[in-house]
């Protein structure tokens, strides 16, 4: 016994090595090859200098198929004086021979109230930097702008870059969209001020 151990990796050691190799081959998941169809690709183009295509999701609603595209430095058609707020676009797949896309206006172009201790700054907010869609039929779409800022405390030279998101229903009716501000702590701040 002791002699076996001293001899080190003999035929038995080789057998163990082979077994480990076999386990590695069986246990490690292999990559799966797939082909990208470049021949019949659908090409959609957006306005220049908007980072159109920074984020993309495929979307369907009933029989309609859409490509939803983020362009985080786009200007708004509905209010050109907001500085590069970013936007998302919808591009219909099928029945769209000219491959046109339409800008979706999330949030009021005039501005929205955002809380008791909140004043929004939408300039350079990078709306459309991320896009995601709930799985399944008629899932809603969420897009965010991580550089949205609360400038309520500007008098104390603080801008709070908490970011913001919008959730839009599957029918892409932007007037039914809801703003999400998970990092805004308006009620906590208001409480501290009162006490
Ligand atoms: C999804 O939307 C389509 C079109 O509005 C509607 O006909 C269908 O019932 C919806 N499905 C679900 C599961 O809500
Ligand atoms: C596609 O573009 C051409 C040329 O600009 C135009 O004549 C045609 O009406 C457009 N088609 C659609 C469905 O918009
Ligand atoms: C456009 O946005 C700016 C900045 O938020 C705002 O001051 C202005 O009133 C808006 N203009 C219109 C026409 O909504």
Automatic annotation (TrEMBL):
Query: In the UniProt record, does the keyword Signal occur?
Result: yes
Where are FG-GAP repeat segments found? 35-100
Domain of life from the UniProt record: Eukaryota
Gene Ontology BP annotations: cell adhesion mediated by integrin; cell-cell adhesion; cell-matrix adhesion; integrin-mediated signaling pathway
Cite the GO molecular-function annotations of the record: integrin binding
Q: Which GO terms describe its cellular component?
A: external side of plasma membrane; integrin complex
SUPFAM superfamilies registered for this protein in UniProt: Integrin alpha N-terminal domain (SSF69318)
Which keywords, in A-to-Z order, does the entry hold?
Integrin, Signal
* Stretch forming the signal peptide: 1-33
- InterPro entries, from UniProt? Int_alpha_beta-p, Integrin_alpha_N
Question: What is the recorded name of this protein?
Answer: Integrin subunit alpha 4
List the source organism.
Answer: Pipistrellus kuhlii (Kuhl's pipistrelle)
């Amino acid at each position: 016994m002791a002699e076996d151990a001293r001899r080190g990796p003999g035929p038995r050691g080789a057998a163990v090595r082979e077994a480990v190799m076999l386990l590695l081959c069986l246990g490690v998941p292999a990559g799966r090859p797939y082909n990208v169809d470049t021949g019949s690709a659908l090409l959609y183009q957006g306005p220049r200098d908007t980072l159109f295509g920074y984020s993309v999701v495929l979307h369907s609603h009933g029989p309609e198929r859409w490509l939803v595209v983020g362009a985080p430095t786009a200007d708004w058609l509905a209010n050109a004086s907001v500085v590069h707020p970013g936007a998302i676009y919808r591009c219909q797949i099928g029945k769209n021979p000219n491959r046109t896309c339409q800008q979706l206006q999330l949030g009021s172009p005039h501005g929205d109230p955002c809380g008791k201790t909140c004043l929004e700054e939408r300039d350079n907010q990078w709306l459309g930097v991320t896009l995601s869609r709930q799985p399944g039929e008629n899932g809603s779409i969420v897009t965010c702008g991580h550089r949205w800022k609360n400038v309520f405390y500007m008098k104390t030279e603080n801008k709070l870059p908490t970011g913001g998101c919008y959730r839009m229903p599957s029918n892409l009716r932007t007037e039914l969209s809801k703003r999400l501000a998970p990092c805004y702590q308006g009620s906590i701040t208001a409480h501290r001020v009162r006490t």
